[in-house]
Specification:
Number of domains: 2
Number of helices: 20
Helix content: over 70%
Organism: Bradyrhizobium jicamae
Family: Belongs to the inorganic phosphate transporter (PiT) (TC 2.A.20) family.
Structural class: mainly alpha
Number of strands: 0
Largest sheet: none
Keywords: Membrane, Phosphate transport, Transmembrane, Transmembrane helix, Transport
Protein name: Phosphate transporter
Pfam families: PHO4
C-alpha cells in the first residue's frame, strides 16, 4: 500500500497528520497510564482529593517536560534506521512511524484497561526494535546489523536495573525510617477515609510532586523526538535542519565530514560505502554555506537524510569492538559536533508534548491506583510506605532524565512499593506480582510483534 503514496502528495500529507495524531495520543495515554503511579499514594491515603491530585500532578508533568532536555528522546530515536529519520523521502518512513506508534499505543491502552501497571517506555522500545529489525532484515542486513543492539542494550539495561534499584533503596529507606520514627500510627493503612497526620500528608504531596515532575523530565521527552519526525515530514522546508545552528558549527561540520570519511574507510562496517557517499554529498551541499537558512528549502530534507546516515555510521564505529580506542574516541567527538543539527526540538514542540502528557494525567488513574494500593503487598499500603517509595522513585527518575537514560516510572514506583512491603514484613501478593511480571516479560516481544505486523499490513 505504501508505494502508492508519492512524496509530497496529499495522501502522504494525510498519513503524516495521522502519524502526528497517533504520537500525541500516545503521549496522552502515557499520562493517564504512567502518571497514575505518581498520584496513587496521595489519593489512596486520602492526603489529597483525587481531583486535586491529578490536576497538581498534571501541572508538575507539564513543568517537568519543559525543564527536561532531549537526551532521552534521541536515545530512543537512535534505535530507528536512518531512512525513517527523514519522513519526506518516502511513504515507507511514514509507515514506520505510524506502525511503531500504533503498536505502543495499543499495548498502553490494553494494559491500562486491564489495570496492569505497564511501562510506556518499555512498549515504545519494543515497537522500535520490531520496526528496525523487520526493515533491516528485508534490506538484507544480518540480525546483528539490522538493529543498533548496543543502544538497545543500554536502554533495556536502564529499564531493567531501575526497578531493582527502586526495590532495594525503598526497602533500606523504609527500614531506616521505621527505626527513626517508631510511632505505630504512621504505619497503619487508611480506614474509612482517615487521613495521615498533617506533616505526613505534606510529605506525601511533596513526593507526589517529585515523581510527577521527574516523570515529565523523563517520559515527557520520549514523544518529543517522534513529534519532531512527524513535524519534519509535514514541514520539511522549515524543520528538517536546526535553523539555530551557528556559522561556527557549520564551519566545524565542513571540517569534520572529510575526517569522518577517512574514519569510515579505516573502521566502517558493512554500511561504510553508503556513509562515504552520503558524507561526500553532504560536503557538496554545504559548500560555502554559513547558515542553515541559506540552504534552499527543497535541499534541506535530503541533506538531513545524508547527515543521519553519517551519524548512524559514526555511532556504529563508536561501539565497534574491532575499532581502536582512538577511532572510537574520534567517532564520539564527531558525533557531539554533528547531532545538534538534526537532533533538536523547538519550544512549541515541548509545550505540545507537555500539554498532552499533562492532560492525560488528569484521567484514567483509578485502575492503577487500586493495583498499587491493594494489589502488591499482602496488606494495604500505608502512608509511610507510599512516601518512602515515591521519595526513592522521584530521585531515580529525575537522575535518569537529566543523564539521558530512559527509565520506567511504573517499574520504579512498583518496585519501590514492593520494597517497602518486604521491608515491613508484610510480604507480597503472588497473583498481582505475576500479572505485573507477565506484562513486563511480554511487553517487549508483544510490541515488537505488533509493530512488525502493523508495518507489514501497511506495506
Amino acid at each position: 500500500m505504501l508505494e502508492f503514496f508519492v512524496p509530497g502528495s496529499p495522501a502522504l500529507f494525510v498519513l503524516l497528520l495521522l502519524c502526528l495524531a497517533l504520537v500525541l495520543f500516545f503521549e496522552f495515554s502515557n499520562g493517564f497510564h504512567d502518571t497514575a503511579n505518581a498520584v496513587a499514594t496521595v489519593i489512596y491515603t486520602h492526603s489529597l482529593k483525587a481531583t486535586q491530585a491529578v490536576i497538581w500532578s498534571g501541572l508538575m508533568n507539564f513543568l517537568g517536560v519543559l525543564a527536561g532536555g532531549i537526551a532521552v528522546a534521541f536515545a530512543l530515536i537512535e534505535l530507528i534506521p536512518p531512512d525513517v529519520l527523514t519522513p519526506p523521502d518516502g511513504a515507507l518512513a511514514v509507515g514506520m512511524l505510524v506502525a511503531l506508534t500504533l503498536a505502543a499505543l495499543t499495548w498502553n491502552v490494553g494494559t491500562w484497561w486491564l489495570g496492569i501497571p505497564n511501562s510506556s517506555s518499555h512498549a515504545l522500545v519494543g515497537a522500535l526494535i520490531g520496526i528496525a529489525l523487520e526493515y533491516g532484515l528485508v534490506q538484507g542486513h544480518s540480525f546483528t546489523g539490522a538493529v543498533n543492539w548496543h543502544q538497545v542494550g543500554g536502554v533495556l539495561s536502564a529499564l531493567l536495573i531501575s526497578p531493582l534499584l527502586g526495590f532495594g533503596f525503598s526497602f533500606i529507606l523504609y527500614r531506616v525510617v521505621c527505626r527513626l520514627i517508631p510511632n505505630r500510627e504512621l504505619y497503619q493503612a487508611p480506614i474509612d477515609g482517615s487521613r495521615p497526620v498533617w506533616w505526613l500528608r505534606g510529605l506525601l504531596v511533596l513526593t507526589c510532586t517529585g515523581v510527577s515532575f521527574a516523570h515529565g523530565t523523563n517520559d515527557g521527552q520520549k514523544s518529543i523526538g517522534f513529534i519532531m519526525l512527524a513535524i519534519i515530514g509535514l514541514m520539511p522546508q522549515t524543520y528538517a535542519l536546526n535553523e539555530y545552528v551557528s556559522s561556527e558549527q557549520l564551519t566545524q561540520l565542513s571540517q569534520i565530514v572529510p575526517q569522518s570519511i577517512s574514519l569510515f574507510q579505516q573502521a566502517g562496517d558493512q554500511q561504510r560505502q553508503v556513509a562515504i557517499t552520503s558524507a561526500q554529498t553532504l560536503l557538496d551541499g554545504l559548500a560555502g554555506v554559513h547558515s542553515i537558512t541559506a540552504i534552499p528549502s527543497n535541499k534541506r530534507s535530503p541533506l538531513r537524510h545524508r547527515l543521519n546516515v553519517v551519524i548512524a555510521e559514526l555511532g556504529a564505529i563508536e561501539h565497534k569492538n574491532s575499532a581502536t580506542d582512538t577511532q572510537r574516541a574520534q567517532a564520539k567527538d564527531y558525533l557531539e559536533h554533528l547531532t545538534g543539527i538534526v537532533q533538536y526540538a523547538p519550544w512549541w514542540v515541548r509545550i505540545l508534548s507537555a500539554l498532552c502528557l499533562g492532560a492525560g494525567t488528569m484521567i484514567g488513574y483509578k485502575r492503577i491506583v487500586k493495583t498499587l494500593g491493594e494489589g502488591i503487598g499482602r496488606v494495604r499500603m500505608n502512608p509511610m510506605q507510599g512516601g518512602t517509595a515515591e521519595a526513592v522513585a522521584s530521585t531515580l527518575i529525575a537522575s535518569a532524565g537529566f543523564t539521558g537514560l530512559p527509565v520506567s516510572t511504573t517499574h520504579v514506583v512498583t518496585g519501590g512499593v514492593a520494597g517497602t512491603m518486604v521491608g515491613s514484613g508484610a510480604g507480597l501478593q503472588p497473583p498481582a506480582l505475576q500479572r505485573i511480571a507477565i506484562a513486563w516479560i511480554l511487553t517487549l516481544p508483544g510490541t515488537m510483534a505488533l509493530s512488525a505486523f502493523f508495518f507489514y499490513a501497511l506495506s
